[in-house]
Design goal:
This protein is mainly α and 314 residues long. The protein has a single domain, classed as Rhopdopsin 7-helix transmembrane proteins. It is 72% helix and 3% strand. The protein is built from 12 helices and 3 strands, in the order E-H-H-E-H-H-H-H-E-H-H-H-H-H-H. A 3-stranded mixed beta sheet has the order 2-1-3. The longest helix is centred in the middle third of the chain and has 34 residues. The protein is globular. It is a multi-pass membrane protein. This is G-protein coupled receptors family 1 profile domain-containing protein. Its main location: membrane. One of its GO terms (cellular component) is plasma membrane. Keywords: G-protein coupled receptor, Membrane, Olfaction, Receptor, Sensory transduction, Transducer, Transmembrane, Transmembrane helix.
């Protein structure tokens, strides 16, 4: 049995996600833009992954890192968006206790993994432009494997306590999550216990992981810009800036959307509750949809690989 919102005598076995509290009668209309965005995100990333897998010229470290990014995007999309659409279409609000904390674990772990991947890609571009002679000996397939292991274990160890701290709480006050996602604080607020440790750990872990990544990424691009400005050849400088431009655009978009979500969430009652919820949903859709498209358009090798893949399918 599911605990009702007014009961406090039964232990919670499942939660109800109502998505947008103030838009219960109209929120289903949001499925109109969300559905094509999901199809675009999944389709574009799957095409990119297939192109990298089948095209021998794309079997290089830089493209392997891009494949890691696409794989993370697909996992994040499938973890969050289908459930939201089921709520909009079929009013499937219930989510099991285990399913909720599994979703929380995936979100809290894979989102920082994406940030770490951007960091490794920035380092790749730094070596390629600032130390081109050493690039083949530094950025190797072994480097990508080690980077992937680093990304997994660093973020897994740092974010695993978040769902564990939330799951250990005693949920006896209610089971209605006023969110589309099993976000840590949205769920923890339903408990009867003290959640100050949950809030503190999430704050520290998010800023330590994403904050350090962002600082190191910006530092890498400062060195890159300094090196590009020293290039004697205008053509070489333009090519270098073009190569890094798409990377930097996506990175800044990823962090800008995330920072806006964090600050609107902290603003509390000054911002309507629906705004941070919508930003959180869009952060799981727009970057995954944009990443493969921007890289595909701005990188000639990927564009050729995708065109060859599409011709092969015909």
């Amino acid at each position: 049995m599911t605990l009702s919102i007014n009961s406090s005598s039964t232990q919670v076995t499942e939660f109800l996600m109502i998505c947008f509290p103030g838009m219960q009668d109209t929120q289903h209309w949001l499925s109109i833009p969300l559905t094509p965005l999901l199809v675009l995100a999944l389709g574009a990333n799957m095409v990119l992954l297939l192109a990298i897998q089948r095209e021998a010229s794309l079997h290089e470290p830089m493209y392997y890192l891009l494949a890691v990014l696409s794989l993370l995007d697909v996992i994040l999309c499938l973890t969050v968006i289908p459930k939201i659409l089921f709520i909009f279409w079929f009013n499937m609000k219930p989510i099991s206790f285990t399913g909720c904390f599994l979703q929380m674990f995936v979100m809290n772990t894979f989102l920082p993994m994406e940030s770490s991947t951007f960091l490794i890609m920035a380092y790749d571009r730094y070596i390629a432009i600032c130390h081109p002679l050493h690039y083949p000996s530094i950025i190797t397939e072994q480097f990508v494997v080690k980077a992937a292991i680093f990304i997994i274990f660093r973020n897994l160890l740092a974010t695993l306590p978040t769902p564990i701290l939330a799951a250990r709480l005693d949920y006896c006050a209610g089971n209605v999550i006023e969110n589309c996602i099993c976000a840590n604080i949205s769920v923890a607020r339903l408990s009867c216990g003290d959640i100050h440790l949950n809030k503190l750990y999430q704050f520290v872990s998010v800023w330590c992981l994403l904050g350090s990544d962002l600082v190191l990424i910006l530092l890498s691009y400062c060195f890159i810009l300094k090196a590009v400005l020293k290039l004697q050849s205008g053509g070489a400088a333009t090519k270098a800036l073009s190569t890094c431009g798409s990377h930097l655009i996506l990175i800044l978009f990823f962090y800008t959307l995330l920072l806006v979500f964090i600050f609107t969430n902290k603003a509390g009652k000054k911002v309507p509750a629906e705004v941070p919820i919508l930003l959180n949903v869009l952060h799981h859709l727009i970057p995954p949809a944009l990443n493969p498209i921007v890289y595909g358009v701005r990188t000639q090798e990927i564009k050729h690989g995708i065109l060859k893949l599409l011709k092969y399918q015909k």
